[in-house]
Structure formats: structure tokens, C-alpha cells
């Protein structure tokens, strides 16, 4: 499709999948020059997703998750962000392509579900109108045909009485239905890549589960590649095939969901797990929040960016404060960026962390 | 929606009633409280050399000896059912709505207002179309190219436009375009639209441009601020994520969102303008409502002032009503709330 | 997108152009006559004492504008100088002031009448012969009965409250007389007789030597009874002059076109040069000045001169100044010193003001030598026949503080006192005058508090309302007066006769209450000998000045722009502006 397609490329190291991934992000760097200095929102990130698979990107706010998704969609305004690296969507490099090519890909090849459906949908247009618009950008069909399609989509995402609801405005929907409508809009052009940016954060807990179920069902149906971006490991626990843990614009741990939940090796991942409410077992102690706050992206701490908040940083001498740990394979395509020796990490997990969860 | 409009209309009528009572009091009661006598009020309507008898006669004829509420009642009655004025030589019928009768120019106020309203309407409509087009497009471009040379230039222009008084720009425009280069009509030119639309537009061109200069500057700033806000809204990002072309993102999603405050301000501006674009009409010697009001004030011709005030109030109230209705049209959230 | 950008650039270019033209405003359209073929050389004051650009050439339309509404075009009610000047284009009164530059215009000449009035019965009866062959625009001949009807009609103050009231004051109207509309069958011969179609006889209640002045009022312009529509007649005037009305739109304007029924042979006064007049009303005053200078307009009808904005422009640029005339007009700007307010009940305290005031600052307040006028020491301005030059107080141009202090001591207020001064707050010149008084009088310890009132109520509710004056301690009131016509009676009667002061307000006279002066006025009115009567006016002037109840400020002048392309232009002293009846256009 595009000249940037490489036939000889080798996927970046990572967990699941055989053959060519649908999305292949390599060494992505997104830097924003501001008056205060250079904000390195994403600084050397690589990951990939195959069709039919789900990747969860997890991290606190400000870790670069959303900037990553916006980069994949090609939504950063020209001139405001310095983007380097490659974002190969089915072989086409989003970073290097013209805005017009990327625009045509948006909505059709890759679509996005946003966090707050109330603000993400235009308050002045009906839900149907907005789905129809999305559909007709990429499909040369009559309005009636598009409207029919919109009603089908609403039906598919579980909106009752879609014939009537299609003419309602976003504010007339409940929160959960609004998100369903948003999903309908995103899926209206049958995209091969779906990015869900905190799709459930603004919703009630009970509704959250329904939406996640919906995404899972639809993924099976559409066989698309899905990225779920969240700060909540619980959201991706049952949905994701692979999980990428981000901290300060970089990947600190990247593995299968099984690896991340059952044998996590990065202290930050432990922290995330510790602060995740679990309903599947009786909890012995209080939640274990991660101390401190996310680092500034202008002055990222030297060495391991996580060192000021890491209980185990002093186990490495001064290594954690001087040298940035690389993301290396700890076995079975389980990538971890930590100075602690792998054996030590597993020991700490087994003896200190896991029992407390 | 219909009941809403009816309710608003009733409220508007009550409001107009109150406005008229207050205005009436300001012009007829306040001077009395300040020490004016019926005779001294009447001296405004007689010549320099009038004798006591003439003054008393006039005071009596104008009803200045009656209590203020009787005077107001008579006036209000005239508005509703019409009245008759004794003009000495003959009785003059003033049919409803009789907003009064000018004893200085010997004209009933209402027909005069109706005669002049088209001029003001023509001025206001033409100018507002101009300023909406220029103001909004300059504002949109400025917002999209924020910080660019165009943006800075446009905002300096906007500041200048807002700061320059219209009686100055108007006179300068006349001097330059009408008298030096003869490309626009001289002051005081007006041809009714029904007579010759081309001449009508030609005559009003300079007043339109001058008036719109002031407003387009305001609207450019307003639009720019609104666009800067809406272009950062999540729904604009959504529109882009759908793959919409940028022009459509800007116009259909961005501008549409930024338009609400503009519609509001526009409604009020337009209402006020219809009530009398005083300075513009004065500068260009257009015989509209604003100029009529000024003439009334200079001549201290109370029925005229009262008439224009009330008509202006009608327009402002109507503009408010229309804005509220437009608001519902523009923003569905208001409609169904 | 591109369109918008161009539009924006266009607007910006317009702004830039405006700025440029504002800076270089001096070089546009100085109008030196150029290619118009005129032989006259423009010169400052060229139309004051002689006719500028004399011509007998007919044709052309004179374009004129007025910055406000006409009071009324009805000759029976109009009461403005410019309107009386203009009315001669469409109406013929019995007499008129001679259409000539300089002093000559003070002379009365017959117009509709064949000669000046013939007094009899010691000035109690006045007889006029009317010209034969004078016709209305519809071809009907004008008769004495029409003049009688017009005069009687004007006495109806219920229908015409704004008009001059001289006729009802002097005519011996029968008891029960109300108006031509309400009492049409009442025999009015005791007031006006018309023994035949060409003779009209006025009978007065008392002798009045100056009746000829009343005969020149527009109220004697004939009106056909069957065409009279009362208050509406102002929009349906039937002409007797060389022009008649066309397209009259109240408040907006009208045209004058030639009246083919007017016969030059019956009219020794009018040349009727232009083919017509095009008059716009309610035109922005600053725009009028601008158009006068560019030649887009020839006449500013108000005749009071240019606005402050244009003043310095036309006076500082020699090319423009050459098109300016600076006549002194029969108007006095003065300040009333009210003896009803303590301590001005004491003449010495009044004199202290006369001495202490800085006269020059009065002139400055009014705009200086050209725009303001000449320093006045009398009540009568120089144009009024009978004017005598004198200066009773001899306080010099900036005041005499020693004399002022002496006067204060004589008054028993050696350290000064406090008083208030009223002015019309919407008149910046009067405000400046009040400030000048405040500063000048402060030099001798008289503290003046300034109080502004709206012009609209100034005489009816403030300075002209005697109880208000006393209550608010208004010792001083700025004032001004122009005569209805250039005659001692016309000038003095409304401002020095104590009997015009009304306790209910509305009089221009606020301070002159001298019984002796009232008697002198009554005597002068009876004097049929012009020279003796004129001497009487000067005596009255002196007598009032002795009482120190009036501080004369300046004899007003105006700065008139002579319209380009006008021919036969001159300032008619009796109106203090260009003579509209005589001018033509190239």
C-alpha cells in the first residue's frame, strides 16, 4: 500500500503473535517543545499488536499512554510535537506519511474510543448524525443507507430501540449507552485497529463490565486488533492478551497478561497490582498504593525513572540513579527494564510482594 | 416550545408596560419632583415670546395639570385604543397605537417611527451581514493560525476597530471615499429599497462598512476566543479521529460549537442597533430611529423620546426572545431541558 | 478562504487610508474657483461689505443643508432668523429688509406692499397699499384679504404656539376673539381693515412707531384661506415667491422649483437666479462643514458658522480662509447679575463684578477674536441702529482689581462673598465663561460656585424661573440674545423690560428690573421720528448699564464658509448670514 512497507522487517521483540503484526510501533518518540523545556511524553517505545489480539497499555496518568494512542491515530497537530520512530499500520508508516493519507486511514483502518463519551461526542448533533458522518466519510453511500447502517450499529452495541434512539442527542443517553454509541461510531467503518482510551473510566462499575464484555465480543466478531489504554490493571485483566506497562514515557515491562499478573518482575508493576482492588479473593491487608507521584516529563529522574519511588532501588548500589535500565528479555519474550537481577526480582515477588496482595 | 414562547411573549408585554411607565416617569414625573411646574414644562412647547395665557393653554392641552398617573393612563390608553389631539385649528386623530404626538413638529410619533424604521433596519441588516462574514471569518482564521503574522495583524486590526469612534471613522470615510474619490454616496443619501435596490445598496455601502468595522472587530475577537476553546474540545478530536477533512472539522464541529455565544451577543447587538444606531445615523445623516431620537432629545420633544425609547425596548425585548429561541435551535441541550 | 483574506486586507487598507487622509487633511479641495470660469478672487471677508462674485446669470440648483429640523416652514409660525431669510424665496411679506451688503440692509423696503406703511392717528393706524398682479402658485391673485387672514391666523397661539406674538400684542383685536378657526364670523375690522383688494389698514391698541418692522415679518406673507389646513399647512405651503415646494418630506428635506406664476415685474427685490434649491434636513453638522469645503454643498442653512472641528482648519489654511466670511452678528453674549440674589441687591456688589471680571477671558471662552467676537461694553450690538459706543466702567481688557476692591468695600463686603453662577451645561462656551468668572472674581475674594443646567430647561425651569434663582443663590447667569430684527425695540424689549419676567418662568430677562427703563421703553415705542427713537435706545442701553445688572461679554461673530460656485453672495446684516434670496450658482 505504501512505499514505507518493508518486507524484510523483523517485529520488535515482544510477547504474543506470529507473522506480521497489524500495528508495529518502533522506537516511538514524541517530544513537545514548550516554554519550560522539552516534554518527552514518549521516549523510545516499541510494541506491536496482531489482528484478533488485544494489547493493554497500563500506566499512571502522564505516563505517555494517551500521547501514544494519539500518535498512532496521527492526531498530533503538526508543528506542536516532534515525532520520530515508526508507527507501521499494516505496513504503512503513520509518522512518515502525508496528513491526507493518514486522514484516510483514520476511522477506516484505525478507530478510537475516547474516555468521556459526553465530551467526546458533539453536543449539537444527534448520535445518529455523528455515526452517519463517520460512515459516509469512508463509504460513498446515500444518507438513508448510512442511517440504516447507523441503526444496525446501535443495535449491535446493544442500544434498545435503535430506530428511535438514533435521533437522540448524546445528552439524552445514559453514560453506559453513550459509550456504546461511541463504540458503534468507532466500529462503523469496520476498522482493523481499535484503540480504546480509558473506555470505562467515566462509567459505573457495573456498566464497566458490560462495556468491556461488549468490546471483547465485538473484537471476536470483527477480528480486529485492539489496544486498551488504562490506568487500571483490573480493566485489562480479563481482556488483554498482552500488557505493556508504561512509566515516564517508556515501557518498563511488556509481556503476556499471564506473565504480568502471575509473575510480574518490575517493582512498578508490583505497585500497580498492589493498588488494584481484587474481588476474587479475600484481602488480607489494605491496598498498597505506590508512594510518591509520577515524575515530571521535562526533568525525568536520572537512571531508572522509577528510582525515587522504588523501595528496592538501593539494592543496586547507585546503579538505579545513574544508569537507565534497558528493556531486556527476561525469558519467554517477557521484557523488563530493571536493574535488579532477574533471580532477585522473582524472589522478591514470591517472598515479599505476592503474599501481601 | 410553543407554551414557552407564549409565556415569554406575555412576560415581554408586562416588561414593556413597566419600561413605558418608568420612561414616562423619568420624563414627566422627575422634572416635577425637581421643582418644575406645569407651566414651566409647557414653556418648552411655546415660542420665545409666548405670554402667560399661551403657556397655560399649552400646559392644559398637554395635560400637565393632571396627576401623573392620569397623564400616564391617558398616554397608555392612546397606545391601546388611540386618541385625539386638539390642535387648535383642527382636532388631530392619532389612531392606535398612538405613541404620542409631537407638539414641536406637529407629527404623530408612531407613523414617524414607522417611516424611519426601514432606514434603521436596512442599516442594521446590511452592516450585520458584513460584520458577521468578516468578523467570524477573521476570528476563525486567527484562531487556526494562532500566533501567526495574520493572527497578530488581525488582532491589532480588531483592537483598532473597537477603539476607533464611529463619528471619526465615519467622517473620515466620507471625506475620503465620498468627497475625495467620489466612489461612495455623500452623507445623507438614502434611497428606499423598494424604489431602487441598487441605489439603496450604493447609498448605504459606506455606513454599512463603517458600522461593521466596529462590530466585525468585536466579533473577530469573540470568534477567535470561542474557536480557540472549541478546537480543544474532545468532540473536535473525535471528529478528526473519524477521518473528517480538516475544513469540515473546523466548520461543522469547531465553529458550530463556538457559535452559541456569538448568536447570543449578535441578538442583543442587533436589537440595540434597531433601537437606534445613533452615532452612525448621525454621522451619515440617515433619517432612522437613532437620528429621530437625537432630534427629540435636542428639541426636548418628550413624546418623540418616549416613543423611540418604547420602540427600542420592544426591539431589545424581541431580540432577547429570539435569542432564547435561537439558543434552543442551536443547542439541543437547552431545547429538551 | 482567499476571499476572506482579501476582504480583511481591503478593510485594513481602508483603515490605513483613513489614517492617511486624517493626517493630510489640509490639502484636499481648497476650491480656488479653478475651472469654474469665475472672475472673482476669493478673499477673507470678501462678502461682508460688498457683493462677492456678482452675477445676473440664471440657472443651476443650490444645494443646502441644515443640521437639525426646521422649526416650521409655515410663515405664520416660523421664528428663526435663517428661516425668515429663506422664507423670502417662497413668500412675500409686506416689507423686507433691503437685500444689500453692509449697513444698507438695515433699511426697510416694500415687497408685497407698494411702499412703507403710512402711519396716522399718531402711529395707532398703519396703512399699506398692496401691489397688483402678485399671484399664488396656482394663479390666483393675492388680495389684501389674504394678508389680513394670514396675520389674524398667526395670532392663534393654540395652533401656532411657537410663533412671534407681536401682532396679538399690538393689534386691537375684538373681545371674544380666539382664532380664524374658532371665531371665524367675528368682525375683526377694528383690528385690520381691507377697504379694497389692494389696501390693508392695521389698527393698534396703542401707538407703535416701529410697526413697519412688524410688517416685514413672515407672518404678513399671504395665505389663501381655502388652502389653509391649520397646523398641517406647514407641509402644504402655497407660494407667492419665485419658488414653490416639491417633494416635501417632513424632517428630511424638500426641493424648491421655479414658480411660473411669479412675475419679475411685480418684484424689485428678487433676482431669482438659481433654477431651484435642494434642501436636506437633519444632516450631521460636521459633515456639512466637510461638504461645504469640498463643494458638495453650497449653503449651511443655519447660518451660525462652522463647527469647532472645522474652525481651526478653515482659519489656519490661507486657501481656505479666503473662502471665509467673519461677520459680526446682532447678538450679544452676556451675563446677568441678578439683584434678587443677595448681596447683589447692593449695586456696589454688582459693580465689583463689572470691575473684577477679566473681559479678555470672556472672549477666549467664546473662541477668540474670529469665532467668539469683539469685546462688548454695551447691550446694543453695533449693527442695531441707535447703537452708541460707550464704556461706563473702564475696567480695561483684563479688569481693574483696585476699583473692584473699592466697590466691595462700598458694598460692605471688603473680603468678598460667595455666590453661584448658572450656565447651560450642554454649551461648552458658556461653561468656559462660567469658569472664567470663577477665576477672575476669585482675585478679589468673590467665590463662585458653578452650576450647569440643561439648555432645554434653562429659561423655563432654572435661570428664567425667578423663585429658582433666589432659592439656588444664582447671582450670575450666562445669557445671550439676538434680536428678532435689527432694531432697538426688537433687541431690547425682551431683555430689559421687567414686565416680561414671569414668576412661572420662561423669560430671557432675568436681572433687569428697572421701572424707569420700562417707562423709557414705552416712550420710545411711541416716537415716530426715527432719529429720535434711535437715540432713545442708546439712552436705555446706558441706563441699564448704570445699574450693573448686565455684564456684556462679546458681540458675537460667526465664521461662515462661502460655498463654492456661489454667485452674488453677500452677508445680509439684518440676518447676520448670507442672503439666501439673492444668491445664485454657477
From TrEMBL, chain A:
Keyword ATP-binding: yes
Pfam families for the chain: ABC_tran, oligo_HPY
Membrane topology note: Peripheral membrane protein
GO BP annotation list: peptide transport
Residue ranges annotated for the ABC transporter domain, each copy included: 25-273
InterPro entries according to UniProt: AAA+_ATPase (IPR003593), ABC_Ni/Peptide_Import (IPR050388), ABC_transporter-like_ATP-bd (IPR003439), Oligopep_ABC_C (IPR013563), P-loop_NTPase (IPR027417)
Record keyword Ion transport present: no
GO molecular function terms noted in the UniProt entry: ATP binding; ATP hydrolysis activity
GO cellular component: a single term: plasma membrane
PROSITE patterns per the UniProt record, alphabetical: ABC_TRANSPORTER_2
Keyword list, A-Z: ATP-binding, Cell membrane, Membrane, Nucleotide-binding, Transport
Compartment annotation: Cell membrane
Highest taxon of the lineage: Bacteria
Region Disordered: start-end pairs: 1-23
Subcellular location, principal: membrane
Family the entry assigns: Belongs to the ABC transporter superfamily.
Protein name listed in UniProt: ABC transporter ATP-binding protein
Organism: Nocardioides iriomotensis
Automatic annotation (TrEMBL), chain B:
Pfam family, one: BPD_transp_1
TM annotation in the entry: 9-30, 121-144, 156-179, 199-217, 257-279, 305-330
Cellular component terms (Gene Ontology): plasma membrane
Keyword line: Cell membrane, Membrane, Transmembrane, Transmembrane helix, Transport
InterPro entries (alphabetical): BPD_transp_1_N, MetI-like, MetI-like_sf
Entry-linked Gene3D superfamilies: MetI-like (1.10.3720.10)
Main location: membrane
Compartments, as annotated in UniProt: Cell membrane
Keyword Iron recorded: no
GO process terms (BP): transmembrane transport
The keyword Lipid biosynthesis appears for this protein: no
Segments forming domain ABC transmembrane type-1: 117-327
Record membrane topology: Multi-pass membrane protein
Entry's family note: Belongs to the binding-protein-dependent transport system permease family.
Protein name: ABC transporter permease
Protein source organism: Nocardioides iriomotensis
From TrEMBL, chain C:
Coiled-coil positions: 521-548
Gene Ontology molecular function, alphabetical: peptide transmembrane transporter activity
InterPro entries noted in UniProt: Peptide/Ni-bd, SBP_5, SBP_5_dom
Keyword vocabulary terms for this entry: Coiled coil, Signal
PROSITE patterns: PROKAR_LIPOPROTEIN
Biological process terms in GO annotation: peptide transport
Keyword Acetylation set for record: no
Signal peptide positions on this chain: 1-22
Keyword Cytoplasm: no
Gene3D superfamilies: Dipeptide-binding Protein, Domain 3, Periplasmic binding protein-like II
Solute-binding protein family domain segment(s): 107-498
GO cellular component, one term: ATP-binding cassette (ABC) transporter complex
PANTHER family assigned to the protein according to its UniProt record, in alphabetical order: ABC TRANSPORTER SUBSTRATE-BINDING PROTEIN, PERIPLASMIC BINDING COMPONENT OF ABC TRANSPORTER
Protein name: ABC transporter substrate-binding protein
